[in-house]
Structures are given as structure tokens and as C-alpha cells.
Amino acid sequence: MIIPKLLCTLVRKDVALKPKLLLIAGLVYLISPIDLLPDILLGFGWLDDLVIVPFLGWLSYRSLPKGVQSEIVPDNKENRATSRRMLIYLGILLIVVIVIVMMGDANTSFEPVNSPTTN
């Protein structure tokens, strides 16, 4: 698994500060209640998390030394097939997110519902 191995780079002494900070920034953004797009917006609130967090993880991985990169993701033919499968899964996920967003009612109001008053 790539993610646990990438998280292990946080405690390695042979990894520079930049990849560690990028990875920590992605984790903080993931758990932070402050987002670029608020989660209240139906479907759109998760899109920034689905884009920013993997992007910061990828930047962290790309800024690792080549030796550490090869330890995290060994280069062989099986991994190439796995990465193709991952692209298919990401494509399916993207289609599902787009369908969810399109199914959302555009006329939905975010105003509070008036409750009947009792006299």
C-alpha cells in the first residue's frame, strides 16, 4: 500500500523537510473544517478534498529522493497494471461524483425552514 509507506516517510531521517510538510499539509487540509469549497454545498464541498489532498500527496511523493520513491513504489510490470487499474477506479469515482452533482436539485434553498409558531 502506498499511503502507509508514504506516511512512514514522516519519521525517516533521510527525507527532507519539503515532502514532509507537503504531506502534513494534505492531512491537515483533510481534517480541517475550513475548506476552499464549504461541505454544505451538495457534492461540491467534497470535490476540493478529492483534488487537493491527493495532489499534495503526489507532490510529496515526487519531491522524495529517488531511492525512497523506489522503496515506496517499486518499478515493475505488476505495478504498471495496478496503476492502470487505479486510473480506471479514479475515472469511475469521477463519473459517480459528477452524477451526484448533476442529480442535486438546482432549486434547493439553503434558507432555514420556518417552523409554525404557536400562539
Keyword list:
5 helices, about 0% strand, flat, about 120 residues, mainly alpha
Plain-language structure description:
63% of the residues lie in helices and 0% in strands. By secondary structure, the chain is mostly helical. The chain has a domain at 2-75. Helix 2 (17-31) packs antiparallel against helix 3 (44-62). The model has no long low-confidence stretch (mean pLDDT 78).
Summarize the structure.
The chain is mainly α and 119 residues long. It has helices at residues 2-8, 17-31, 44-62, 66-72, 77-103. The chain is built from five helices and no strands.
List the helices and strands and how they pair.
Blueprint: H1 2-8, H2 17-31, H3 44-62, H4 66-72, H5 77-103
Structural class: mainly alpha
Approximately how much beta-strand content do the residues carry?
under 5%
Task: Give the low-confidence spans.
Answer: none
- Could you state the order of secondary-structure elements as H and E? HHHHH
Shape: flat
N- to C-terminal separation? Answer: 62 Å
* Strand segment count: 0
Count of DSSP helices?
Answer: 5
Average residue pLDDT: 78
